[in-house]
């Protein structure tokens, strides 16, 4: 195994190891501070981060506003308070070693306001901002205005080229690194384009090489590229280290830091990780963001698959294609569909899925009365956690509406991620993970239920294992 040397990034010498940002409330100061202290770049998630009362108890994010806009403003204030709290905690625990980044999602609700609020109140503590889930054109302008470096998360050279030409070239001095997040391997939301097949993973090397060639054209030959997604053992990436063709390379670890003593996730979540098998992390497209994302296939995800299968096309008026009347639900409303789809729907209703919910695509999904009520309540309670939400039809615009029907095939992502991050049922919530999570069960480092500290994990990674 080649020797792994420190690297200069964001104006500091650090180990080429970045802790991947995981919201909501998962990449906390408790874990990112020790990662920085171990010499790498710790990442505080500024996505609905936790804030504490005077006794050190987490302050629940309860929304009092009667309108979505009022609740959205509350969400922004919660986001700023939590982000500042976690950065301060991480800074204290880092002991001035390594570096600290914060992570935000460009498509999260109020992202710019939260970014300004956190950076303004943590001056001198934050070295950089990592940001993806969209095309963060204004990231460079905002970060550089606080003297902070920016680390855009992209999944293709094409995406970075668009960002550079439109905005980043104006703030080139503050570009810390470019994070290539592999869309087939990374956990959380993934940047697959419409031209890429989710079922046909591509080798990351040619994609990263294409990115480096483009960066060299822009005069960025020495700006590090961070490989994110699918990274477990550095020995598997030895050919990437000190590779003149690729240039300076760093590695991001998102899934492995979940299983440390400092990780704030629940014990049931930690206990689940070493049981995962290959293929149990699924790439799906139920997220209300519209992006693909990777999560553990549990009861929560299976219900979404089954819900979408119970779906028919319909019309409100009789047509040649939709000639058969179909009554559904407690109020016996009538729609028209084809004979074949009427037969399917009647079969679902006999099984208890009696309630039909219309989608934006002129289809109807069938659920039971309890699920219908849950979906409707979650849509009504929306607080605008995304800039545009397919599930609730919220959009951060003057009308606070996307102009489309709310989509019952999706879910409230803020609700489920908040719940699982604070001890909720791991089988009935969305559990993000990278596709290499099965290595917890195979890696001898975790034998006999061993759970390392962050320092022990970083030391282990540096050996190549």
Keywords summarizing the entry:
single chain; 465 residues; alpha/beta; TIM Barrel; 3-stranded antiparallel beta sheet; 18 strands
Question: Can you characterise this structure?
Answer:
With 465 residues, this protein is of the alpha/beta class. The chain folds into two domains: 7-264 and 439-462, Aldolase class I (TIM Barrel), CATH 3.20.20; 299-421, no CATH class. The protein has 13 helices and 18 strands. The protein has helices at residues 29-37, 68-94, 111-121, 139-145, 157-166, 204-217, 267-272, 299-309, 339-350, 369-380, 413-421, 439-442, 454-462, and strands at 7-9, 12-14, 17-19, 41-45, 99-105, 128-132, 149-154, 178-181, 188-190, 225-228, 249-253, 281-284, 292-296, 311-313, 324-328, 333-337, 355-358, 363-367. The strands form five sheets. It has an eight-stranded parallel beta sheet. A hairpin with a 4-residue loop joins strand 15 and strand 16. Helix 1 (29-37) packs parallel to helix 2 and helix 5 (157-166) packs parallel to helix 6 (204-217). The longest helix is centred in the N-terminal third of the chain and has 27 residues, at 68-94. The chain starts with 6 loop residues before the first strand and ends with a helix. The model has no long low-confidence stretch (mean pLDDT 94).
Helical element count? 13
Q: Can you identify the CATH class of the largest domain?
A: Alpha Beta
Please state roughly what percent of the residues sit in beta strands, choosing from under 5%, 5-15%, 15-25%, 25-35%, 35-45% or over 45%.
15-25%
The amount of helix comes to: 25-40%
Mean pLDDT: 94
Spatial strand order of the main sheet: 3-11-10-8-7-6-5-4
Radius of gyration, in angstroms, nearest whole number: 23 Å
| pLDDT < 50 runs, ≥5 residues | none
**Overall structural domain count:** 2
**Count of β-strands:** 18
Could you say what the CATH topology of the largest domain is called? TIM Barrel
* CATH homologous superfamily placement of the largest domain: Aldolase class I
Shape: globular
Per CATH, which architecture of the largest domain? Alpha-Beta Barrel
End-to-end gap: 10 Å
Q: Structural class of the secondary structure composition?
A: alpha/beta
């Amino acid at each position: 195994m080649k020797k792994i040397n420190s690297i200069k990034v964001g104006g500091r010498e650090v180990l080429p190891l970045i802790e991947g940002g995981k919201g909501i409330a998962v990449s906390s100061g408790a874990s990112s501070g020790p990662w920085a202290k171990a010499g790498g770049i710790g990442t505080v998630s500024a996505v609905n981060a936790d804030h504490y009362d005077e006794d050190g108890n987490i302050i629940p994010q309860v929304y009092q506003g009667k309108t979505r806009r009022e609740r959205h403003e509350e969400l922004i204030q919660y986001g700023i308070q939590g982000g500042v709290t976690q950065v301060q905690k991480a800074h204290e625990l880092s002991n001035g070693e390594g570096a600290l980044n914060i992570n935000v999602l460009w498509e999260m609700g109020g992202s710019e306001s939260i970014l300004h609020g956190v950076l303004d109140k943590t001056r001198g503590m934050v070295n950089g901002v990592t940001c993806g889930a969209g095309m963060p054109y204004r990231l460079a302008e905002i970060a550089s205005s606080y003297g902070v470096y920016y680390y855009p998360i992209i999944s293709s050279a094409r995406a970075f080229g668009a960002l550079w030409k439109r905005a980043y070239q104006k703030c080139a001095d503050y570009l810390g690194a470019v994070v290539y997040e592999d869309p087939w391997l990374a956990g959380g939301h993934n940047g697959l384009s419409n031209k890429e097949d989710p079922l046909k993973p591509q080798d990351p090397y040619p994609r990263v090489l294409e990115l480096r060639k483009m960066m060299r054209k822009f005069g960025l030959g020495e700006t590090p590229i961070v490989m994110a997604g699918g990274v477990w053992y550095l020995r598997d990436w030895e050919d990437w280290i000190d590779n003149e063709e690729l240039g300076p390379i760093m590695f991001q670890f998102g899934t492995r830091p979940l299983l440390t003593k400092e990780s704030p996730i629940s014990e049931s979540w930690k206990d689940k990780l070493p049981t995962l098998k290959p293929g149990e992390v699924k790439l799906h497209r139920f997220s209300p963001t519209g992006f693909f994302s990777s999560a553990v296939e549990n009861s929560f995800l299976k219900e979404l698959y089954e819900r979408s299968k119970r779906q028919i096309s319909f019309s409100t008026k009789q047509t040649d294609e939709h000639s058969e009347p179909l009554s559904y639900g407690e109020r016996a409303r009538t729609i028209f569909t084809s004979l074949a789809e009427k037969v399917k729907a009647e079969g679902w209703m006999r099984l208890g899925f009696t309630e039909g919910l219309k989608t934006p695509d002129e289809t109807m999904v069938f659920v039971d009365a309890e699920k219908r009520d849950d979906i409707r309540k979650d849509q009504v309670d929306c607080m605008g956690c995304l800039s545009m939400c397919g599930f609730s039809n919220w959009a951060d615009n003057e009308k606070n509406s996307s102009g489309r029907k709310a989509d019952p095939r999706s879910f409230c992502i803020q609700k489920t991620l908040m719940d699982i991050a604070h001890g909720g049922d791991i089988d009935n919530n969305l559990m993000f993970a990278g596709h290499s999570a099965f290595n917890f069960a195979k890696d001898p480092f975790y034998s006999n239920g061993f759970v390392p500290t962050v320092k022990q994990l970083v030391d282990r990674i540096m050996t190549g294992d």
